[in-house]
Design a protein that fits this description.
Blueprint: H1 4-20, E1 28-31, E2 37-42, E3 45-53, H2 73-91, E4 97-104, E5 131-136, E6 141-146
Parallel strand pairs: 3-4, 4-5
Antiparallel strand pairs: 1-2, 2-3, 5-6
Amino acid sequence: MKNTTKFNEEQAVMNLLRSQYSGFPPGRIIPSESPDFVLQTGRHYRIGIEITRLTKGPVSALLPSAQSNRFTLQDINYAMSRKEEKRTLYQKKRLNELWLVLVAGLDASSSAKLPANLNTIDKIPLTGFNKVFLIEMISRKVRLIQD
């Protein structure tokens, strides 16, 4: 069972995704583990939604502190590759789709923001997830980066 703080944070992310992503299908959101939520959109259609907090990857740890207030494309790639490794575990739940949600600024202690120049999004490699989102909680920005 998830701790209350983590569950509340993930629920806040889901609420933001549902309200800001116009392609979010209607359905019942069911809390789960691996993935964090299952969206039941029809009798036999289920979307797994895995939420993960962006953290500084090994490359960002070497950057000067002046650059530490933003995540880098390497940080995003690092988070995606970590979740890609677990994708087979999620697929055991016989989901029709699997979405990955990468979140920046989930709590007050994490003030780092998404990269300012996301126009280079083509440098982010494709994953086995059906959709990948970037969410910045502080600004309430939701960006679909893989569809």
